[in-house]
């Protein structure tokens, strides 16, 4: 009996110790418990936006090694079959929007209030907002890095002169930096830059790539030619690759208006077309050591939009027929930018949904058996004339009428 009592007392003591320990554990500081639970390496977390977008559009992304691309409209385009860029570059690519306009006003993207996209204005901060949406989602789909760079005004220079110095600041951290104007949209969100680089012939030593500008006329005089009468390159879409030549080139372009290296360049501080004309007038001649150092992208690929010539022939007869096959630059049609961005996103989403539905069609696509129609029609005929029966009126079955 005594032994039994001792056993119960011992068991009670152990129970009290365990209860005390448990109480102590759960009375720890909440922050300590939070760290233990939330930072548990085995705890799953919700995916971020980047992972979500990557997964969502993975099924439609075009393989950069596939030399053929067919657009939703049925056009087929080709790239170099001996491709240089056959693997995703990911975060080695930066897509950047550089602007002095900051979209923090009413109904603009960096304003924390809810954005009303339907009524987004295509001027000023509204145009910049639209650009960020289109360029950012493209970067997310392909795993590129993205930045909006709020640049400061440069005294006595047009605001477009911000581009050279921002490029020079950002490029040491990346292999490629790609900048687009606010009125530029990517039309095929499924098509990676790597494929476009192959199409345009960018080599491993290429420094920059820019599209030929549209040929515009005022009277019988072209306003799209430099002093050597070569058509200028458009800086609305610029690709720069990080190498020693590019760094020297950007230094020269940034400092062009100082005239230490290029006498006469100060003329383009505020005269149209500013840094674009300075690049074509001086930089491209000074640095194009090989045909691939500065690559000229076809105007039809990266300037204008479908119907560009027809839309602007009255204003500028003889204007180039540049359709923006891949990069659409709405220089003369900024009111069309929002629709272009919306269409690009909806095309990509439609492609994803179509593939998903076709893959799951056995469970989603319900087809009524042919014999079921015969059974229904037979039942209707048997019930004709009876009060409360079913009749077919204009092909629609409904309650019978007396």
Could you walk me through the main structural features you see in this protein, from its secondary elements to its overall organization?
This protein has 402 residues and is of the alpha/beta class. The protein has a single domain (49-356), classed as Spore Coat Polysaccharide Biosynthesis Protein SpsA, Chain A (Alpha-Beta Complex), CATH 3.90.550. Helices cover 38% and strands 14% of the residues. It has helices at 2-26, 30-38, 49-57, 124-142, 162-170, 193-200, 244-254, 274-287, 299-302, 308-312, 337-359, 361-364, 370-383, and strands at residues 68-70, 76-78, 93-99, 145-150, 176-180, 184-186, 208-211, 217-218, 221-222, 237-241, 294-297, 327-329, 390-393, 396-399. Helix 3 (49-57) crosses helix 4 (124-142), helix 5 (162-170) packs antiparallel against helix 7 and helix 7 (244-254) crosses helix 8.
Can you give the mean pLDDT?
85
Radius of gyration from the alpha-carbon trace, in angstroms: 32 Å
For the sheet with most strands, the description reads: 6 strands, mixed
H/E topology pattern = HHHEEEHEHEEHEEEEHHEHHEHHHEE
Estimated helix fraction: 25-40%
Strands, count: 14
What's the name of the CATH homologous superfamily?
A: Spore Coat Polysaccharide Biosynthesis Protein SpsA, Chain A
How much of the polypeptide forms β-strand, as a percent range? Answer: 5-15%
Report the CATH architecture. Answer: Alpha-Beta Complex
Shape: elongated
Number of domains: 1
Treating each run of at least 4 consecutive H or I residues as one helix, how many helices? 13
Protein name: Nucleotide-diphospho-sugar transferase domain-containing protein
Keywords: Glycosyltransferase, Membrane, Transferase, Transmembrane, Transmembrane helix
Organism: Ophiobolus disseminans
GO molecular function: glycosyltransferase activity
